[in-house]
Design brief:
It is a single chain. This protein has about 180 residues and is mainly α. The protein has one domain: Up-down Bundle (Fumarate Reductase Cytochrome B subunit), CATH 1.20.950.20. It contains 4 helices and 2 strands. The chain has a two-stranded antiparallel ribbon with strand order 1-2. Strand 1 and strand 2 form a beta hairpin. Helix 2 packs across helix 3. The longest helix has about 35 residues. The chain is elongated and about 50 Å long. About 20% of the residues are buried.
């Protein structure tokens, strides 16, 4: 009996990949923008939207991980062993950060005493007590993890472009919608 190994990711995997990429980019850009604003009602609204984006990213990450665990990915592309190990490590780091960044942000919001009500409808539980010192540390950790996510994602993009334009191995087509 042979096991079918797909050549490309499923449409659902592609949709989750690109939706998560856009959501992370948007949440990161919004977080950078809001960080430099003076306190105002508009800043408060933007922070709320940033929190909603973070919780949405957390939910999408859960869906993406569940999909990945239940659907076989394409076979590894032919490449040197060190590149394959690097790609696997990068993907693991991305998945960890997909969860760590929003969870630490949520913890920061809880510690700061600012509950999250997702889309103004679903109140989320505070999972750490209000503690201003802890909030300060969690805010810094959230920022460091967010930057780590962006840097690793940038390396991921550069590696994909290297495969597309230097190696010309078609690797990028596995995740490109509307191809094949």
């Amino acid at each position: 009996m042979t096991t079918h190994v797909p050549v490309r990711y499923t449409r659902t995997a592609m949709a989750l990949h690109w939706l998560l990429a856009l959501a992370i980019l948007g949440a990161f850009a919004l977080g950078l923008y809001v960080a430099d604003l003076t306190p105002s009602p508009e800043r408060g609204q933007l922070i709320t939207w940033h929190k909603w984006a973070g919780i949405t990213i957390l939910a999408l990450s859960g869906l993406r991980l569940l999909w990945r665990l239940t659907h076989r990915p394409p076979a590894d592309a032919p490449m040197p062993a060190w590149q394959l190990r690097s790609a696997q490590a990068m993907h693991l780091a991305l998945y960890v950060l997909f969860f760590a960044v929003p969870l630490v942000g949520w913890a920061y919001s809880s510690a700061a005493g600012h509950p999250i009500v997702w889309f103004g409808v679903l109140p989320l539980p505070d999972f750490v007590p209000v503690d201003k010192a802890l909030a300060h540390d969690l805010k810094e950790l959230h920022e460091v993890l967010a930057w780590a996510l962006v840097v690793i994602a940038a390396v991921h993009i550069v590696a994909a472009l290297k495969h597309q334009f230097i190696d010309r191995d078609g690797l990028i087509d596995r995740m490109r919608p509307g191809r094949g």
